[in-house]
Design goal:
Keywords: G-protein coupled receptor, Membrane, Olfaction, Receptor, Sensory transduction, Transducer, Transmembrane, Transmembrane helix. It is found in: Membrane. One of its GO terms (cellular component) is plasma membrane. It comes from Vulpes vulpes. Pfam families: 7tm_4 (PF13853). The chain has 314 residues and is mostly helical. Helix content is 74%, strand content 3%. The protein contains twelve helices and three strands; from the N terminus they run E-H-H-H-E-H-H-H-H-E-H-H-H-H-H. Helix 1 packs antiparallel against helix 3 and helix 4 packs antiparallel against helix 6. The longest helix has 34 residues. The chain is globular and about 65 Å long. The N and C termini lie far apart (55 Å).
Length: 314
């Protein structure tokens, strides 16, 4: 293993530690992580293929679902393969530029994920609360604009991260106490004051996450009010079941992401292995759950997949 200290201002490589204190369990931890990644890839690719092939699914909900699936594929693929190499092959080294690239993809696409959750909540609000105006409010042009805004927001606010870190000198250890290149884990290795950089990162993440979460909650609050006022109890339970599963996925995403953000700011006494394990959850669990909740539980997608499977078997 190369020496852990260096006086080079720009290190050639960093060393990912993994989950501190759980190194002896890395091989076993990699098994469920790999299983979740396989389900995420197969599930999200299936959703994209089904929506592309079935013209009846060319509706706002499924367009947003495709955007979410692409985001999940990029988010999980930018972290899981490298993480599994660390767990199973002991590949700790990661090039400096590759580390910065991974960091950009993680933070920008996590922000996009949050934005698409909000867009899908708004779509459900319009579909349930204003069903007669659904197609006139969410036209193809507006859906495209909303998607572009979500992508631009993610790229614009988190492009400075790798640029800022590229300017910092690194004369301390090259060991990153994490399973991937997280901004806060890397910035701690700089040998200059990084207070302003840290505050920028935490402020942007907190503001964007809080605004998206609040607006999503407001959308589902209006949805619940409309659901409880439906004359048909069966229709109300059906809508409530659908929205309930959506809310569960969103809660997992925002609770784990929020825990990770605020632990950096306030959780100095939180054990490192707990913090890092939960930080992995908001990158792994939503891409794993989204195809199940939004795909398998969606009747049109489920019927199309079963129809294709029956044809192939026959």
């Amino acid at each position: 293993m190369p020496p852990l200290n260096t006086s080079r201002p720009f290190p050639v490589t960093f060393l990912l530690m993994g989950i501190p204190g759980l190194e002896h369990l890395h091989v076993w931890i990699g098994i469920p992580f790999c299983s979740m990644y396989v389900v995420a890839v197969v599930g999200n690719v299936t959703i994209l293929a089904v929506v592309r092939a079935e013209r009846s699914l060319h509706e706002p909900m499924f367009f947003f679902l495709c955007m979410l699936s692409i985001t999940d594929l990029v988010l999980s693929t930018s972290t899981l393969p490298r993480m599994l190499c660390l767990f199973w092959l002991g590949a700790h080294d990661i090039a400096f530029d590759a580390c910065l690239a991974q960091m950009f993809f993680i933070h920008s696409f996590t922000t996009m994920e949050s934005g698409f959750f909000l867009a899908m909540a708004f779509d459900r609000y319009v579909a349930i609360c204003h069903p007669l105006h659904h197609t006139t409010i969410l036209t193809h042009a507006r859906i495209t604009i909303m998607g572009i805004i979500v992508v631009i927001r993610g790229v614009a606010f988190f492009s400075p991260h790798p640029i800022l870190l590229k300017q910092l000198p690194y004369c301390r250890t090259r060991i990153i106490a994490h399973t991937y290149c997280e901004f806060m884990a890397v910035v701690k290795l700089a040998c200059v004051d990084t207070g302003a950089t840290t505050r920028y990162s935490l402020s942007v993440a907190s503001i964007i996450g809080s605004c998206d979460a609040i607006l999503t909650v407001v959308s589902y609050a209006f949805i619940l009010r409309s659901v409880f006022s439906l004359p048909s109890r069966e229709a109300g339970f059906k809508a409530l079941g659908t929205c309930g599963s959506h809310v569960c996925v969103i809660l997992v995403f925002y609770s784990t992401a929020g825990f990770s953000i605020f632990t950096h700011r306030f959780g100095k006494n939180v054990p490192a292995h707990i913090h890092i394990f939960i930080a992995n959850m908001y990158l792994l669990v939503p891409p794993f759950l989204n195809p199940i909740v939004y795909g398998v539980r969606t009747k049109k997608i489920r019927e199309h997949v079963l129809r294709v499977l029956k044809v192939n078997v026959a």
